[in-house]
Every structure is written in structure tokens, then in C-alpha cells.
From TrEMBL, chain A:
<feature type="transmembrane region" description="Helical">
    <location>
        <begin position="240"/>
        <end position="259"/>
    </location>
</feature>
<feature type="transmembrane region" description="Helical">
    <location>
        <begin position="58"/>
        <end position="89"/>
    </location>
</feature>
<dbReference type="InterPro" id="IPR051789">
    <property type="entry name" value="Bact_Polyamine_Transport"/>
</dbReference>
<comment type="similarity">
    <text>Belongs to the binding-protein-dependent transport system permease family. CysTW subfamily.</text>
</comment>
<feature type="transmembrane region" description="Helical">
    <location>
        <begin position="12"/>
        <end position="36"/>
    </location>
</feature>
<keyword id="KW-0813">Transport</keyword>
<keyword id="KW-1003">Cell membrane</keyword>
<feature type="transmembrane region" description="Helical">
    <location>
        <begin position="136"/>
        <end position="160"/>
    </location>
</feature>
<dbReference type="InterPro" id="IPR000515">
    <property type="entry name" value="MetI-like"/>
</dbReference>
Automatic annotation (TrEMBL), chain B:
<keyword id="KW-0813">Transport</keyword>
<dbReference type="GO" id="GO:0005886">
    <property type="term" value="C:plasma membrane"/>
</dbReference>
<keyword id="KW-1003">Cell membrane</keyword>
<protein>
    <submittedName>
        <fullName>ABC-type spermidine/putrescine transport system permease subunit I</fullName>
    </submittedName>
</protein>
<keyword id="KW-1133">Transmembrane helix</keyword>
<feature type="transmembrane region" description="Helical">
    <location>
        <begin position="268"/>
        <end position="289"/>
    </location>
</feature>
<dbReference type="InterPro" id="IPR035906">
    <property type="entry name" value="MetI-like_sf"/>
</dbReference>
<dbReference type="InterPro" id="IPR000515">
    <property type="entry name" value="MetI-like"/>
</dbReference>
<feature type="transmembrane region" description="Helical">
    <location>
        <begin position="87"/>
        <end position="108"/>
    </location>
</feature>
Amino acid sequence: MQNRGFKKGLAVFWWLTLIFLYAPLLVVMVFSFNAINTSARWGGFSLRWYERLLNNDVVISAIGHTLLLAVISSIIAVILGAMIGYGLYRHRARRLGLLIVLIYLPIVMPDIVFGIADMAFFVQINRLTGLLSPGLSTMVIAHVTFQIPFVALIVYSRFVGLDATLFDAAKDLYASPWQRMLHFILPTLKPALLSAFFLSFTLSVDDFVISFFTAGPESATLPIYIWGAIRRGISPEINAIATLMIASVALVAVVSLLFNRRRA
Amino acid sequence: MSQADVVWRRRQRRETRHLLVSVLPGALWIFIFLVLPSAYLMSVAFMTNGGFGQPQMPLTLDAFRNLAGFGFLGWSPGNLYTLWRSIFQSVISLALVVLVAYPVAWYISLCRPRLRAIMLLAVVVPSWTNQVIRAFGWMNLLSPGTPLSSLAEKMGLIAPNMGLFPSDFAVTLGLVYNFLPFMVLPLYAAFEKLDHAQIEAARDLYASPLRTFFVAVLPQTLPGLLAGSVLVAIPAFGMYVIPELLGGGRSQMLGNLVASQFGEAANWPLGAAGALLMLLATLMGLFILRRMGRRLGGGTEMVI
């Protein structure tokens, strides 16, 4: 359809959609600098909500929990997921249907079912054995579970993109399995592992539902804190925390993009 | 047994061991921490409510009768309304998402290749923000006294001082907002491969724009549309955060019903029965996707 008017109409629609997509985020960011305690009116510029955040111990510890959870779970997930990705690639000739179903399960499972299943399971295990009381450890377990598939898929697709004869070349040069791992597989995998780590990290920070149901009283993350604050009544303080989270996500996105571009 | 046979067998065994060592730790992790818990949750759906929400023996179908509205005090339609609202909201938001995503995906596919990557990124980036924050943004935009609410009030769409939030409308809007990228990406993948000659042929034959769309564009983008529909409708059906925040208690969906049974309402079997329903819906969606993918071809290259 080379029609000029048609394309112009589509362009207008595109910009309207962009406004739709970014308006809620911009509102949060703008009103985090509002001097008065409402999101309905602008009362002048102020940093008071950010100052308040710095003095809020609960928020500071929630930030700590969020980062700790994201880092620990991503490290575990990258190790386990990369091993699966490598196994899937090396044995792709075999029939691995059931394994693939297992790997896709965490992705397709509704997150509320995921979270509640884990919660109910952890509660019963805790009652029977005293282990796994709700807290950071149960959250790490749940997060790793939904991060593994993404890591495995990224690593697998990196291997598929490689020239398969490279593996034979390494063997022909009498590289031992360890040498192959150290000098060929890990270096070629490095970009994939890094982007898998970043993705796992973002997935962890982004998650609310699964964290909410597996968290303990002492392990609230930022999204859980924000959720509670919203339920207690809207305060511009939430705007300030949310703005920090939006900004950090944008930062991670830009960093990983620059990183990707350099690789390409 | 020949020498070659022995070597081949030994190699086979080594390969199997390699497969197990590399795949087993992660696979076991998913099995223990997702498959087992889900199996347990499903079994809870067939147990009896023990008073404090704890599931007990004997096995019954009480939870499902509960879900259908039969309780202590006879039948009430509350749960069925919730179910109906889940279906209704996911269908409506799916329809709206399709209406928005088609022009967007089409436009992106008509732009210069370098620009396309950036445009797709622009569509996806908002969904990287935590969904609680995104819903909170809409609360800010729609609450009573904001420009949008005042405008709706002046146009007589809502009662004075009510605001656009909390309401069913806010939930629909939140769902559309949340799931738009899930439709744009697969639709764009379809539009990228669009054969423009078919559109020109239709126009040369004096087909109306609408007819051109249905004859030349829709069939070509159908795989993307179907993939997107499953990616939108199924998660929307089990949505928890958006109805909870934007619906304000009166617009509960199945996810909220399930969650409340594990919290303040304390009826684990009922909650588990709801979760079972959600899982069945998910499986059905995946099944449809696979069937359609096979029939249309190329459905396997799905965007996640």
C-alpha cells in the first residue's frame, strides 16, 4: 500500500500510541518532583520526596533485598541455565521433547499459579522439616526457577548461531575437553552469558507476583514495598521510588544496547 | 561384537552421561521447585477445607462446587461473576490490543530498517518497568480530579467526582497497556514478510480498502495474530496486579479470587481449584497455538 495518506495516518497513530505507552511512566517521574502531596495538581519543583526516601530505613533495606535477590538468583540461574543450553545444543539430535516442555513450563505458567504453588509447597515443607521458612532463600529459589529457561534459550541460540565445524576443529587440534571449555566454549559464550545475566537480573527486579507470594516478613523487596505503600494510600514518596526504578531499568537497557552494538 | 561396536557403545554411554551432567541440575531444579509444587497445588484442589485454610483429607469435589458458587448459605453468583469478568476482560482487552497493534506493527514494517529496531525497542521498553509501577502510573492519570477524569466527567461519561479509577474501564485500559507489546512483536514479524504485490493486486482489481485488508493483509499476518492472541488472552485471564490496583475491589478477576483464598479468605482448596482452571486455560492456549502453527506453517518461530 504505497498510498501517501495511508502512511501519514499510520504515523499519527504511531505517535499517539507512543504517548499512550509513555504517559503513565512520565506522570510518575514528573510528580516525583512535585512540591505538594497530590498527583492531581502541580505545586512547584521540590526534592523533598527524595530526601524522605534517603531517611527511610525500610526503603533502603528493600533496595538491598532487591539487589541481593537479583544478583544471587541470576548467578545461580546463569550457571544452571548455561549448562542446560549447552546440553540441549550438543544433544540436539536426540529426542528431548519432555525436557523442552519442562524448560518452557516456567515461561508459560501463569505467575500467580507459579507463586502460589511455590508458597503452598514451601509452607508444607517448612511444616514437615523446618527448612525453607519464607524469606530471601525461598525467593531466590523461585526466581532461579523462572530465570533458568531464559538463560538456557539465550545460550542455546548462541550455540546454534556458531559454525558447528568449530567444535570439530578444536577436537582435531587435540584440545582436551577442559581446553575446549576454557579456550573455545567459554570465550565464545561470554557475550551470551553476560546478556543472560542482565536479562535474569531485570526479570528478577521486574517480578512482583512470584516475589510477593514467596517473601517472608523480613525480606520485602522494592516492588513489594511499593505495593504495600499503594495499598496504604497514595503518597508522592512512591513516585520517587518508582522514578528511581524506571531510571535504573533505562540505564541497564542502554548499557546492554551499547554492549550489543559493540559486539555486532 | 566387533571392536567398532564396543567403541560406539562406550561413546554412546559417555554422551548420555554428558547429557545428564549438563542438563540434570537445572532440570531437577525446575522439577523440584515448580513441577512438584504445582502437582501439590492441583491435589489440594481435591481436598477438604480444614477451617484455617489448611487442606485436609478426605478427597472431595467440594472446592469445584464452591467455585461454581455453592457454599454454606446456598448458591450465590459471586464466583461466577468473577469468572465471567475474567473471560470478558481478557476478550475485550484482546480485541482492543489487536486494534491498536495492527496499525503500529504495519507502520513499523514500512519504516527504514535502521529505524525499525529502535521503534520496536520503544514499544517494548515500558514493559521492562515493574508492573506495579505501571499500574500505579495509571492510577495517577485516572484518579478523581485529574485532567482525564475531569474531561470524562464533562462529557458525561462518569458520575461527578468518581474518577475513571477505580473501575472496570481502568482494568481494561491497564490490560491493554500491559499486553500491547506481546501483540506488536509477533504481528511485526508477520508484517516484515508481507508480500506487498498481493495488496497492489487487490487494489488494481478495485477492492475497497477494507476488502483489501481482509483479502490481502489479514491472511498473511494470521500466524502473528494467533501467536499474539494466545500471548495476550491467556496471561490476561489470570492477571492479578492490574485488577487488584486499578479495579479497587469491585473488579476482581480469577487471579484475585485465587490469591484471596490463600490469604484473608483462607480456603486453600477453593483457591487451588481456581488455579487449576487457570492452568487448564493456559494448556488450551498452548494447544491451540501448536495446532494453528502446524496448519499455517512457521508458527514455531514464536517471539517470547
